[in-house]
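#structure-requests
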Amino acid sequence: MSATRCGMSSRNLSRILGVTVKTGYRMWKQIRLALSEGEGIKFVGHVEIDETYIGGKAKGKRGRGAENKTVVLGIVERQGRAKGIIIPDVKTKTLIPEVKANVDTNATIYTDDLPSYNDLDNNGFDHKTVAHSEKVYVSAGDIHTNNVEGFWSQLKRSIDGTYHHVTARQLQGYVDEYSFRYSHRNDEKPMFLTMLEQVVKTSSLERASV
Protein backbone atom coordinates (compact mmCIF):
# COMPACT_ATOMS: atom_id res chain seq x y z
CA MET A 1 0.00 0.00 0.00
CA SER A 2 2.99 2.30 0.48
CA ALA A 3 4.66 1.41 -2.82
CA THR A 4 2.53 3.67 -4.99
CA ARG A 5 1.05 7.16 -4.60
CA CYS A 6 -2.34 5.84 -5.71
CA GLY A 7 -2.62 3.03 -3.16
CA MET A 8 -3.70 -0.56 -3.72
CA SER A 9 -7.07 -2.28 -3.91
CA SER A 10 -7.95 -5.00 -1.39
CA ARG A 11 -8.27 -7.54 -4.23
CA ASN A 12 -4.75 -6.81 -5.42
CA LEU A 13 -3.50 -7.07 -1.84
CA SER A 14 -5.24 -10.46 -1.55
CA ARG A 15 -3.58 -11.74 -4.71
CA ILE A 16 -0.11 -10.61 -3.64
CA LEU A 17 -0.39 -12.17 -0.17
CA GLY A 18 -2.15 -15.33 -1.34
CA VAL A 19 -5.12 -14.91 1.01
CA THR A 20 -8.87 -14.82 0.45
CA VAL A 21 -10.55 -11.64 -0.73
CA LYS A 22 -12.34 -11.37 2.63
CA THR A 23 -9.06 -11.64 4.57
CA GLY A 24 -7.33 -9.18 2.25
CA TYR A 25 -10.16 -6.68 2.65
CA ARG A 26 -10.04 -6.89 6.45
CA MET A 27 -6.25 -6.36 6.48
CA TRP A 28 -6.55 -3.48 4.01
CA LYS A 29 -9.31 -1.87 6.08
CA GLN A 30 -7.37 -2.18 9.38
CA ILE A 31 -4.26 -0.63 7.84
CA ARG A 32 -6.33 2.26 6.52
CA LEU A 33 -7.96 2.78 9.93
CA ALA A 34 -4.50 3.01 11.49
CA LEU A 35 -3.55 5.80 9.07
CA SER A 36 -6.16 8.12 10.56
CA GLU A 37 -4.13 10.61 12.59
CA GLY A 38 -7.00 11.27 14.95
CA GLU A 39 -8.52 14.28 16.61
CA GLY A 40 -7.10 17.12 18.64
CA ILE A 41 -4.24 18.18 16.36
CA LYS A 42 -5.12 21.70 15.25
CA PHE A 43 -3.88 23.25 12.02
CA VAL A 44 -1.72 26.35 12.35
CA GLY A 45 -0.10 29.05 10.20
CA HIS A 46 -1.57 29.58 6.74
CA VAL A 47 -4.48 27.18 6.25
CA GLU A 48 -6.55 26.64 3.12
CA ILE A 49 -10.10 25.29 3.38
CA ASP A 50 -12.38 24.04 0.64
CA GLU A 51 -15.01 21.39 0.03
CA THR A 52 -15.53 18.92 -2.78
CA TYR A 53 -18.09 16.36 -3.91
CA ILE A 54 -17.21 12.71 -4.44
CA GLY A 55 -19.43 9.94 -5.73
CA GLY A 56 -20.58 7.93 -8.71
CA LYS A 57 -21.38 9.56 -12.00
CA ALA A 58 -24.92 10.90 -12.14
CA LYS A 59 -26.90 12.97 -14.57
CA GLY A 60 -27.89 16.50 -13.66
CA LYS A 61 -26.18 19.24 -11.72
CA ARG A 62 -22.50 18.98 -10.89
CA GLY A 63 -20.50 20.63 -8.08
CA ARG A 64 -22.24 22.32 -5.17
CA GLY A 65 -25.80 21.10 -4.84
CA ALA A 66 -25.19 17.96 -6.92
CA GLU A 67 -27.28 14.93 -5.99
CA ASN A 68 -25.89 11.50 -5.08
CA LYS A 69 -22.57 12.96 -4.02
CA THR A 70 -20.78 12.92 -0.67
CA VAL A 71 -19.42 16.23 0.63
CA VAL A 72 -15.84 16.30 1.93
CA LEU A 73 -14.35 19.29 3.77
CA GLY A 74 -10.63 19.73 3.15
CA ILE A 75 -8.18 21.51 5.47
CA VAL A 76 -4.59 21.96 4.27
CA GLU A 77 -1.65 23.75 5.88
CA ARG A 78 0.60 25.40 3.33
CA GLN A 79 3.79 23.30 3.28
CA GLY A 80 2.19 21.06 5.90
CA ARG A 81 -0.56 18.62 6.71
CA ALA A 82 -3.95 17.80 5.21
CA LYS A 83 -7.21 16.47 6.57
CA GLY A 84 -10.50 15.51 4.96
CA ILE A 85 -13.78 15.26 6.84
CA ILE A 86 -17.07 13.85 5.56
CA ILE A 87 -19.84 16.40 6.20
CA PRO A 88 -23.58 16.37 5.45
CA ASP A 89 -23.75 19.77 3.71
CA VAL A 90 -21.96 23.10 3.23
CA LYS A 91 -24.17 25.23 5.47
CA THR A 92 -22.67 27.70 7.93
CA LYS A 93 -23.88 25.66 10.91
CA THR A 94 -21.92 22.68 9.56
CA LEU A 95 -18.71 24.31 8.31
CA ILE A 96 -17.91 26.76 11.14
CA PRO A 97 -17.90 24.18 13.99
CA GLU A 98 -15.65 21.87 11.94
CA VAL A 99 -13.21 24.71 11.29
CA LYS A 100 -13.20 25.73 14.96
CA ALA A 101 -12.55 22.14 16.01
CA ASN A 102 -9.63 21.65 13.63
CA VAL A 103 -7.92 25.04 13.12
CA ASP A 104 -6.12 27.20 15.68
CA THR A 105 -7.69 30.64 16.05
CA ASN A 106 -4.30 32.26 15.41
CA ALA A 107 -4.16 30.75 11.92
CA THR A 108 -4.83 32.70 8.74
CA ILE A 109 -7.59 30.94 6.78
CA TYR A 110 -7.99 31.10 3.01
CA THR A 111 -11.27 30.07 1.35
CA ASP A 112 -13.26 30.79 -1.77
CA ASP A 113 -16.27 33.11 -1.60
CA LEU A 114 -18.88 30.57 -0.48
CA PRO A 115 -21.11 32.64 1.86
CA SER A 116 -21.08 29.87 4.49
CA TYR A 117 -17.49 30.83 5.34
CA ASN A 118 -18.31 34.48 6.02
CA ASP A 119 -18.93 33.88 9.71
CA LEU A 120 -15.29 32.86 10.25
CA ASP A 121 -14.49 36.55 10.79
CA ASN A 122 -16.94 36.64 13.69
CA ASN A 123 -15.28 33.62 15.29
CA GLY A 124 -11.84 35.16 15.77
CA PHE A 125 -10.15 33.97 12.57
CA ASP A 126 -8.07 36.04 10.17
CA HIS A 127 -10.09 35.09 7.08
CA LYS A 128 -9.06 35.90 3.52
CA THR A 129 -11.26 35.16 0.49
CA VAL A 130 -10.61 34.60 -3.20
CA ALA A 131 -13.57 35.24 -5.52
CA HIS A 132 -13.90 32.00 -7.45
CA SER A 133 -17.45 32.98 -8.44
CA GLU A 134 -15.91 35.85 -10.43
CA LYS A 135 -13.25 33.56 -12.01
CA VAL A 136 -10.54 34.98 -9.75
CA TYR A 137 -8.15 32.30 -8.47
CA VAL A 138 -5.28 34.31 -6.95
CA SER A 139 -5.64 37.67 -5.23
CA ALA A 140 -3.03 40.01 -3.71
CA GLY A 141 -0.25 37.53 -4.42
CA ASP A 142 -0.94 34.87 -1.78
CA ILE A 143 -4.72 34.69 -1.36
CA HIS A 144 -5.66 31.41 -3.04
CA THR A 145 -6.71 27.81 -2.37
CA ASN A 146 -4.31 26.13 -4.79
CA ASN A 147 -2.88 23.72 -2.22
CA VAL A 148 -6.19 22.25 -1.08
CA GLU A 149 -7.29 22.00 -4.72
CA GLY A 150 -4.09 20.07 -5.45
CA PHE A 151 -4.99 17.72 -2.60
CA TRP A 152 -8.44 17.17 -4.16
CA SER A 153 -6.85 16.43 -7.52
CA GLN A 154 -4.60 13.73 -6.07
CA LEU A 155 -7.43 12.20 -4.02
CA LYS A 156 -9.83 12.01 -6.95
CA ARG A 157 -7.22 10.68 -9.40
CA SER A 158 -6.30 7.96 -6.92
CA ILE A 159 -9.89 6.91 -6.28
CA ASP A 160 -10.81 6.94 -9.98
CA GLY A 161 -7.65 5.16 -11.10
CA THR A 162 -7.32 2.52 -8.37
CA TYR A 163 -10.77 1.94 -6.89
CA HIS A 164 -13.09 3.37 -9.59
CA HIS A 165 -16.02 3.60 -7.18
CA VAL A 166 -16.22 4.28 -3.44
CA THR A 167 -19.36 4.10 -1.32
CA ALA A 168 -20.27 6.95 1.01
CA ARG A 169 -19.98 4.54 3.96
CA GLN A 170 -16.33 3.72 3.22
CA LEU A 171 -15.22 7.09 1.88
CA GLN A 172 -13.80 8.47 5.15
CA GLY A 173 -11.26 5.64 5.23
CA TYR A 174 -10.01 6.49 1.74
CA VAL A 175 -9.85 10.18 2.62
CA ASP A 176 -7.85 9.38 5.78
CA GLU A 177 -5.35 7.32 3.76
CA TYR A 178 -4.71 10.06 1.22
CA SER A 179 -4.62 12.73 3.92
CA PHE A 180 -1.86 10.70 5.57
CA ARG A 181 0.03 10.37 2.29
CA TYR A 182 -0.23 14.12 1.65
CA SER A 183 0.79 15.06 5.20
CA HIS A 184 3.94 12.91 4.98
CA ARG A 185 4.82 13.53 1.34
CA ASN A 186 8.04 15.35 2.24
CA ASP A 187 9.29 12.90 4.87
CA GLU A 188 12.88 11.84 4.29
CA LYS A 189 12.18 8.25 5.34
CA PRO A 190 10.38 5.85 2.96
CA MET A 191 6.56 5.89 3.11
CA PHE A 192 6.60 2.23 4.21
CA LEU A 193 8.46 3.13 7.43
CA THR A 194 6.22 6.14 8.02
CA MET A 195 3.11 3.98 7.68
CA LEU A 196 4.61 1.23 9.85
CA GLU A 197 5.39 3.71 12.64
CA GLN A 198 1.80 4.98 12.49
CA VAL A 199 0.43 1.42 12.76
CA VAL A 200 2.65 0.77 15.79
CA LYS A 201 1.61 4.07 17.37
CA THR A 202 -2.10 3.37 16.83
CA SER A 203 -1.76 -0.16 18.24
CA SER A 204 0.01 1.18 21.33
CA LEU A 205 -2.74 3.74 21.95
CA GLU A 206 -5.41 1.04 21.62
CA ARG A 207 -3.64 -1.21 24.14
CA ALA A 208 -3.22 1.70 26.57
CA SER A 209 -6.95 2.44 26.46
CA VAL A 210 -7.98 -1.14 27.30
